[in-house]
Write a structure and sequence with these properties.
Layout lengths: L5 H20 L4 H45 L10 H42 L10 H14 L1 H8 L2
Helix pairs in contact: 1-2, 1-3, 1-4, 2-3, 3-4
Length: 161
């Protein structure tokens, strides 16, 4: 029988690899996110049967929609600044960590992204001539994932998820 922490270890491995690839290339390949999602589904089926497999599917959908829904609403007025890799990575994390885990990850990812955005605004104000650069979200998702795993107990106590 596998340890119940195996999905957490898998999630950390996936986001570390994703962070490195995204930081270097600004792309998250399907060759990473697809197998990670399938592995998460299979692992959760093995650990908890059909019910946990269903939760893994729900987690994948929730994770995917966390980034995809806001993009869908902004595509009408703006050029899409993000590729689909970020959405697929969160979808894969949802399949691995289940709905509550991917919601915690999304929460911490948003906090990290917000801090990153404030720092970028401050830097831009100090040097207005600097060009805005693209942001690799993979490393930010990795930090959010790791924080969500490390602070799982505290987050559950405070927010209930």
């Amino acid at each position: 029988m596998l340890d119940a922490n195996v999905p957490k270890y898998l999630a950390i491995a996936v986001v570390v690899v994703a962070a490195i690839i995204d930081y270097r290339t600004r792309k998250l390949p399907n060759l990473l996110t697809g197998p990670a999602a399938l592995l998460g589904l299979g692992l959760n089926f093995y650990l908890g049967g059909v019910v946990q497999f269903g939760l893994a599917l729900l987690g994948a959908v929730i994770g995917y929609l966390v980034i995809e829904l806001p993009q869908w609403f902004t595509r009408r007025n703006y050029k899409n600044p993000l590729g689909g890799g970020d959405s697929k990575l969160l979808g894969a994390l949802g399949a691995i960590l289940l709905p509550s885990g991917v919601l915690r990850t999304a929460f911490y990812f948003c906090l990290v992204y917000g801090v990153f955005g404030v720092v970028a605004i401050i830097r831009r104000r100090r040097d207005p001539s600097s060009k805005p650069s693209t942001i690799a979200l993979g490393p930010l998702i990795a930090v959010g994932t790791i924080l969500s795993i490390l602070l799982e107990r505290q987050t559950k106590q405070f927010f209930g998820f």
